[in-house]
C-alpha cells in the first residue's frame, strides 16, 4: 500500500513538472528584431547621441536568405534612442544575440563608461559582447560596410576577433573583461581598433592595433606592430608572425608556436625594477636570405639575432607606453600588488608617476623549433 502511494506521488510530480514548466519570459521570435551589432556616435550637427543598429533580416522564399538592415536614430540618451527605435522597426529590439559594440573615437575620448552604461544595466543584454573603437570619423560607417551581399557584418567581425589569436595584432576584449578592469586601481586597459581598409577592390572593415585607455578615456592609438609587443608583455601571444629584417632586403619570417611571458619585481636598495621574461618557440616560415642555416651554429646565430630584436622591441614599446601615455595597460601594478603588497600601498597613491619612472629589464629566450619542410635556403651561394 505504501509503495502504491509512493508511485502515485511520483507520477503526480512528473505530470505537474510537464504541465507547469516553461520560460517565464518567452516571446515569439516574430515579435522581435534580433540585433547583431551596435554603433554609437556623437551627431556632428546637434551633438546628441547617434545610435545605429544592425538587425538580422530573414527573407523567406524558395530559399531562405539571411541579410541585415539598419536603423539609425538620434537622441539625448542612448536608452531613449533604443526604445524609440520601436517606432521604426515596429518590433521590440532583442539584444541577447548582439556580438559587437563599436564606439566612435570621439565618444571614447569623452568617456567609455557613459557610452556603454545603458547596455550594462539592461536586463536583456549580455556582457560577452566585443568592444571596439572606430578609427574612422564615425562608428556607423564601419557597421554598414559590407564586404559581400547576404552577410551580417557584426557576426562576421565577431569571427575575425575570435581568430585574432592567430596573428596577435590586437587585444580581444569583451564587455565583461572591460568592466572588470575599470574597477581595478592597479591597471588601465586597451581596446581593439577597427577601420575601413581601402587598399583592395572593395572597402572592408579591418581590425588591428589598439586604443590606449586611461581613466575611462581613449588617450591614444598604437599600430599593429606596437600592439603585438604589448601583447607579448601581457602574456597574450600564443601565435602570430615575427619578422627579422636584418636591415637588408632579405628578411626572415618566423611563425610563433608558443610563448610564455612572466613578470616579476626585483627590489634592490629600496628601488623597484620589473623584469619581463619571454620564452618563445618559433619556426622559420620564410627565408629570403642566401646564408645557410641548417647547422646548429648557424641556427644559434639566427636565434640570437631574433632574441635581440624581440628584447629591443618589447623594451622600446614598454618605454613608449611609460613616457608617452603614462597608462599602465601592461599590468605592472597588478604584479606589484600581488608580489609586494606593502610596497604597492606606498606607491599606489602616485602610481602614474611611479609607473612612468619604473626601471624595466626585458629578458627573452627564443628557440627555433624547425624550418618547415626544408632546412636550406632555396637559393644559396
From TrEMBL:
Note the topology in the membrane: Lipid-anchor
Print the keywords alphabetically: Germination, Lipoprotein, Membrane, Palmitate, Signal
**Pfam families from the entry?**
Spore_GerAC (PF05504), Spore_GerAC_N (PF25198)
Task: Show where the Spore germination protein N-terminal domain sits.
Answer: 25-194
Q: What cellular component terms from Gene Ontology apply here?
A: membrane
Q: Which PROSITE patterns match?
A: PROKAR_LIPOPROTEIN
Q: Which GO terms describe its biological process?
A: spore germination
Cross-referenced InterPro entries: GerAC_N (IPR057336), Spore_GerAC-like (IPR008844), Spore_GerAC-like_C (IPR046953), Spore_GerAC_C_sf (IPR038501)
Q: Spell out the subcellular localization from the entry.
A: Membrane
Q: Where in this chain does the entry annotate a coiled-coil region?
A: none
On whether DNA damage is a keyword of this UniProt record, the answer is: no
Chief location bin? membrane
Source taxon at top rank: Bacteria
Domain Spore germination GerAC-like C-terminal positions: 208-371
Identify its protein family: Belongs to the GerABKC lipoprotein family.
- Name of this protein: Ger(X)C family spore germination protein
Amino acid at each position: 500500500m505504501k509503495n502504491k502511494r509512493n508511485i502515485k506521488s511520483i507520477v503526480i510530480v512528473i505530470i505537474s513538472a510537464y504541465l507547469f514548466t516553461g520560460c517565464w519570459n518567452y516571446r515569439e521570435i516574430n515579435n522581435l528584431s534580433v540585433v547583431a551589432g551596435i554603433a554609437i556616435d556623437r551627431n556632428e550637427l546637434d551633438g546628441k547621441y547617434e545610435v545605429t543598429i544592425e538587425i538580422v533580416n530573414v527573407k523567406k522564399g524558395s530559399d531562405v536568405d539571411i541579410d541585415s538592415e539598419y536603423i539609425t536614430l538620434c537622441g539625448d540618451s542612448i536608452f531613449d534612442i533604443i526604445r524609440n527605435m520601436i517606432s521604426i522597426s515596429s518590433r521590440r529590439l532583442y539584444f541577447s544575440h548582439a556580438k559587437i559594440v563599436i564606439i566612435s573615437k570621439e565618444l571614447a575620448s569623452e568617456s567609455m563608461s557613459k557610452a556603454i552604461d545603458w547596455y550594462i544595466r539592461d536586463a536583456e543584454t549580455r556582457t560577452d559582447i566585443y568592444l571596439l573603437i572606430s578609427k574612422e570619423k564615425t562608428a556607423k560607417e564601419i557597421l554598414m560596410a559590407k564586404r559581400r551581399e547576404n552577410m551580417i557584418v557584426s557576426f562576421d567581425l565577431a569571427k575575425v576577433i575570435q581568430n585574432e589569436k592567430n596573428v596577435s595584432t590586437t587585444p580581444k576584449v569583451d564587455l565583461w573583461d572591460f568592466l572588470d578592469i575599470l574597477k581595478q586601481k592597479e591597471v588601465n586597459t586597451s581596446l581593439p581598433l577597427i577601420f575601413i581598409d581601402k587598399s583592395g577592390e572593395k572597402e572592408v572593415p579591418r581590425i588591428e592595433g589598439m586604443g590606449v585607455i586611461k581613466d575611462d578615456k581613449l588617450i591614444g592609438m598604437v599600430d599593429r606592430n606596437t600592439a603585438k609587443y604589448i601583447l607579448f608583455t601581457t602574456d597574450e601571444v600564443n601565435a602570430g608572425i615575427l619578422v627579422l629584417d636584418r636591415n637588408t632586403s632579405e628578411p626572415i619570417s618566423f611563425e610563433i608556436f608558443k610563448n610564455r611571458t612572466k613578470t616579476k619585481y626585483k627590489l634592490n636598495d629600496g628601488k623597484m625594477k620589473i623584469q619581463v621574461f619571454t620564452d618563445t618557440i618559433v619556426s622559420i616560415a620564410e627565408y629570403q636570405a642566401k646564408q645557410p642555416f641548417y647547422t646548429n651554429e648557424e641556427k644559434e646565430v639566427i636565434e640570437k639575432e631574433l632574441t635581440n630584436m624581440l628584447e629591443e622591441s618589447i623594451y622600446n614599446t614598454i618605454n613608449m607606453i611609460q613616457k608617452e601615455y603614462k597608462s599602465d595597460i601592461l599590468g605592472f601594478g597588478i604584479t606589484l600588488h600581488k608580489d609586494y603588497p606593502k610596497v604597492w600601498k606606498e606607491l599606489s597613491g602616485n602610481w602614474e608617476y611611479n609607473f612612468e619612472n619604473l626601471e624595466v629589464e626585458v629578458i627573452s629566450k627564443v628557440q627555433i623549433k624547425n624550418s618547415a619542410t626544408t632546412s636550406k635556403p632555396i637559393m644559396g651561394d
